[in-house]
Amino acid sequence: MNTLGRFYGIGVGPGEPGLIPVAAWEALQRCDVIFVPRAQSMDCSIARRALPSNNLPPERFREIEFNMDPDRAALREHYREVAGVVATELRAGKSAAWLTLGDPFTYSTYGYTLAALLDCLPGLEHRTFPGITSYGAVAAAAGWPLGEGKERVLILPCPESADKLRAAIETNDVVVLMKIGARLPMALTLLREMGIDRHCAFGRRVGMPEELLCADARELRAEDSPGYLSTMLIRKTPRTKRHTP
Question: Domain for residue 197, yes or no?
Answer without folding.
Answer: yes
